[in-house]
Design a protein that fits this description.
By secondary structure, the protein is mainly beta. The protein has one helix at about 5-15; strands spanning about 25, 30-35, 50, 55-65, 75-80, 85-90, 105-110, 120-125. It has two domains: about 1-50, no CATH class; about 55-130, Nucleic acid-binding proteins (OB fold (Dihydrolipoamide Acetyltransferase, E2P), Beta Barrel). The strands form two sheets. Strands 6-5-4-7-8 form a five-stranded antiparallel β-sheet, with no helix packed on it. Strands 2-1-3 form a three-stranded antiparallel β-sheet, with no helix packed on it. The radius of gyration is 16 Å and the shape is globular. It starts with 6 loop residues before the first helix and ends in a 7-residue tail after the last strand. Bound molecules: zinc ion. Zinc ion binds near residues 26, 29, 31, 42 and 45.
Length: about 130
């Protein structure tokens, strides 16, 4: 598949499609980075390594997107701050979108979306349905 994506983004997506969500860590200043980059945004060095985050974090901000019931109903869009300190836009599943609250502890999982691509979602930490 021809692609014009930067190599770092391609590596990230290739790992994600094998079910692994990776972020970057700067070997120079120890900062964690997401979204994938070629240079550290903190110290401008290019000494970045891929690491697998713990997968735990908190809801940093949350929005309920309104949708008609026949289109699937309302759904959550949240920005999650991982315990490594990076933020990503995602979705908290497993509860009513209106019950997603800022500060809620969540756990990452990688799941297939309807198109067959893998995507990152979160579930409330400690909930019964999370294994
Ligand atoms: Zn750095």
């Amino acid at each position: 598949m021809p692609s014009t994506l930067p190599a770092t983004t391609e590596s990230f997506l290739s790992e994600l499609n094998q079910g692994r969500f990776l972020i970057q860590k700067c070997n120079h200043c120890q900062s964690h980075l997401f979204y994938p980059r070629n240079f550290c945004i903190h110290c401008s060095k290019d000494a970045l390594s891929w690491i697998e985050p713990l997968g735990t974090g908190v809801v940093y901000s949350t929005t309920t997107v309104r949708r008609k019931p026949e289109a699937g109903g309302d759904y959550d869009v949240s920005i999650i701050e991982l315990d490594e300190g990076v933020r990503l836009m995602s979705q908290v599943l497993g509860l009513d979108p209106h019950e997603v609250k800022i500060g809620m502890r969540v756990q990452l999982s990688v799941v297939p979306d309807p198109s067959g691509q893998q995507k990152v979602v979160f579930h409330p930490l400690g909930a019964d349905h999370v294994q």
